[in-house]
């Protein structure tokens, strides 16, 4: 009995040593599950030697009282369904793993997810997903009259442009007009990164490789705006040389200046995103806009050598001071917030023409307007009027209305002496009214407001009230340049103002009918 036990123990010991020697060099393990998984995988390999067969003489000396591991491997080497099977995890790891190719765990031709190509492909996929949300609304936008309006605008602009070229007004400050046209387009820089909140978890381990992800965003942000700026320069240049034919600033040098400044300011805008301090980023953003004004003012007002030297010194100093503020390698939170704001702005622009799902609106702290709305009576029927007034002054709609009003004011200064000035006044009043249609969606889905005892139509009446007041104030502000022509042509000045006020009231009435219809469909 004892001899038999010693004999079987020796055989088991020899079998264990044999099994350890048969393991592959790259997967040596003493765990029983790993040994069983290795045996199961080797038994099914083409051309492999199965244990317990005639090719393995050592495995034929096993004891009948205690089945050996070699015999178990031979029993399970047929179809894999008989005998003692390996554990599920080890079996999956041994049998289901795809063959490695050149040391990579994916087949040839596949873009690795954490390489430069994979990062660029990830950004491209996100861009495609965003466009797939936007493009289905294109037919509705065209049907809303945008195409016809665009064609009318092009016809009006062509007529005005031809008349200006044929009869250039005397004393036209074209140098400063060129500065006003070019500096905002050059200093303005934005980038679409399509970042997601989950990126702070899943992309953080590859933070050092994010340059490949951001490079397409930077190129797209520069090239599109650069083409627009160059187009504006090419359109304005014939008028400029008609006014100042002997000016030193030639066209090719001006285009080169636009290219250099655009690249420089785009670099500065990206460094502002990376800055740790929000105040430092805001300060450098203001500096970027001031440098844009100074650069074009120097180019169009100073002699050529003085202007070139001034621009060179300013560019070098700006590039140097950008290196001082501390920066993040990747400003995750700031890029995610900026991307959310840009995506929301794009959806709100679509909302001018068709109802689209919008994101949470961005809120701006405008302390200098904190007193607006305090004079509204504290009554239930005025609740929505107060809420919509505050939402307007703290949201994107105020910025859009102000920008259009300022641009319209500048254009009225140039075109106040002809009927084209009145047409532009009506056009900008119409554009502001289209944007203010977004007031209908403010506080639409608020749960608490649906619980309060407020009148059902109070939100619609309050939105129309705010819309009409903003349109009237904007129309009067843009009409102010016509005061200069009031003594010489009172009919043009007063007629333009009257037409703008009537248009504001008509748009308010049209919005009321549209809002009633949409609210009926929502119900």
Strand content: under 5%
Query: Helical proportion?
Result: 55-70%
The count of DSSP E runs of length 2 or more, i.e. the number of strands, is 0
Estimated radius of gyration: 36 Å
H/E element sequence: HHHHHHHHHHHHHHHHHHH
Biggest sheet layout:
none
Number of helices: 19
What is the mean pLDDT? 75
Question: What structural class results from the helix and strand content?
Answer: mainly alpha
Shape: globular
Q: What ranges have pLDDT less than 50 throughout 5 or more consecutive residues?
A: 1-9, 18-87, 100-105
Give a verbal description of the structure:
There is one protein chain. The chain has 523 residues and is mainly α. The chain is 65% helix and 0% strand. It contains 19 helices and no strands. The protein is globular, with a radius of gyration of 36 Å. The N terminus is likely disordered.
Present the secondary structure layout.
Blueprint: H1 2-22, H2 32-43, H3 69-75, H4 88-95, H5 116-134, H6 138-166, H7 174-187, H8 199-202, H9 211-243, H10 251-274, H11 278-301, H12 304-321, H13 332-350, H14 383-393, H15 396-415, H16 419-435, H17 447-451, H18 458-479, H19 490-522
Helix pairs in contact: 2-4, 5-9, 7-9, 7-11, 9-10, 10-11, 11-12, 14-18, 15-16, 15-18, 16-18, 16-19, 18-19
Summarize the structure.
This protein has 523 residues and is mainly α. The protein is built from 19 helices and no strands.
């Amino acid at each position: 009995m004892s001899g038999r036990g010693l004999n079987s123990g020796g055989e088991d010991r020899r079998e264990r040593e044999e099994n350890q020697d048969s393991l592959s060099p790259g997967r040596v393990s003493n765990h029983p599950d790993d040994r069983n998984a290795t045996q199961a995988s080797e038994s099914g390999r083409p051309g492999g030697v199965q244990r317990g067969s005639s090719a393995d003489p050592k495995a034929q000396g096993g004891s009948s009282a205690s089945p050996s591991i070699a015999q178990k491997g031979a029993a399970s080497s047929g179809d894999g369904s008989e005998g003692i099977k390996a554990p599920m995890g080890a079996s999956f790891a041994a049998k289901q793993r795809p063959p490695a190719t050149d040391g990579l765990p994916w087949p040839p031709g596949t873009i690795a997810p954490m390489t430069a190509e994979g990062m660029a492909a990830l950004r491209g996929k996100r861009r495609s997903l965003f466009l797939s949300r936007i493009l289905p609304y294109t037919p509705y936008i065209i049907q809303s009259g945008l195409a016809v309006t665009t064609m009318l605008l092009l016809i009006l602009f062509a007529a005005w442009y031809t008349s200006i070229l044929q009869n250039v007004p005397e004393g036209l400050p074209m140098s400063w007009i060129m500065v006003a046209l070019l500096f905002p387009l050059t200093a303005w820089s934005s980038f679409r990164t399509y970042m997601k909140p989950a990126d702070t978890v899943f992309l953080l381990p590859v933070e050092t490789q994010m340059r490949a992800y951001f490079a397409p965003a930077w190129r797209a942000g520069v090239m599109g705006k650069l083409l627009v700026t160059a187009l504006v320069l090419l359109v304005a240049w014939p008028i400029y040389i008609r006014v100042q034919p002997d000016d030193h600033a030639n066209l090719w040098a001006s285009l080169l200046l636009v290219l250099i400044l655009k690249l420089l300011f785009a670099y500065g805008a990206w460094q502002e995103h990376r800055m740790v301090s929000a105040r430092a980023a805001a300060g450098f953003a203001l500096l970027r806009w001031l440098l844009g004004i100074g650069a074009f003012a120097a180019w169009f007002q100073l002699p050529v050598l003085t202007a070139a030297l001034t621009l060179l010194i300013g560019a070098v100093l700006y590039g140097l001071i950008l290196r001082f503020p501390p920066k993040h390698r990747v400003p995750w939170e700031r890029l995610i917030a900026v991307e959310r704001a840009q995506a929301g702005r794009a959806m709100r622009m679509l909302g001018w023409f068709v109802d689209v799902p919008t994101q949470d609106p961005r809120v701006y702290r405008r302390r200098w307007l904190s007193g607006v709305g305090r004079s509204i009576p504290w009554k239930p029927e005025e609740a929505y009027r107060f809420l919509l007034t505050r939402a307007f002054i703290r949201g994107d709609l105020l910025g859009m209305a102000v920008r259009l009003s300022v641009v319209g004011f500048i254009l009225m200064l140039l075109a106040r002496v002809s009927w084209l000035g009145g047409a532009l006044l009506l056009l900008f009043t119409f554009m502001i009214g289209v944007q203010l249609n977004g007031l209908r969606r403010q506080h639409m889905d608020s749960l608490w407001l649906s619980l309060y005892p407020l009148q059902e139509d109070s939100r619609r009446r309050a939105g129309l009230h705010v819309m009409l007041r903003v349109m009237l104030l904007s129309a009067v502000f843009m009409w102010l340049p016509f005061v200069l022509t009031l003594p010489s042509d009172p009919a043009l000045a007063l007629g333009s103002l009257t037409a703008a006020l009537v248009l504001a009231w008509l748009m308010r009435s049209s919005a009321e009918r549209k809002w009633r219809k949409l609210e009926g469909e929502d119900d």
